[in-house]
Amino acid sequence: MASITDEITRYDELRNELEIDHTGEWVLIHDREMIGLFKSFDSAGEAVRRFGRGPYLIRQIGAPPVILPAALMYGLNRA
Asked: N or C, where is the chain less crowded by C-beta within 10 Å?
């Protein structure tokens, strides 16, 4: 199974091609494969159900990456 870093790397490999015709759409990448393109985050999120646990990447094409604090990424705020 791929890591989230692998999923981001795969997106970066596809980015230029995707931005030509799909800017603003959402892409779902799982296990280093582009699963599909979606018109909304919610529709991409629904597609995730078939994979169970991640990692997977849902990203809006052409948008800058979101940087999450380490506490959110790694669950460091759990009581």
From this structure: C
* DSSP string covering the chain: ---HHHHHHHHHHHHHHHHHH-TTSEEEEETTEEEEEESSHHHHHHHHGGG-S--EEEEETTSPPP---HHHHTTTT--
Rounded to whole angstroms, how far apart are CA atoms 34 and 61?
A: 12
Residues 6 or more apart whose CB falls under 8 angstroms from that of 4 comprise 54, 55, 57
* Encoded amino acid at 22, one letter: H
Q: What are the tens digits of pLDDT across the range 10-45?
A: 999 999 999 999 999 999 999 999 999 999 999 998
pTM over 0.85: no
Least confident span in 2-11, 55-64, 66-75: 66-75
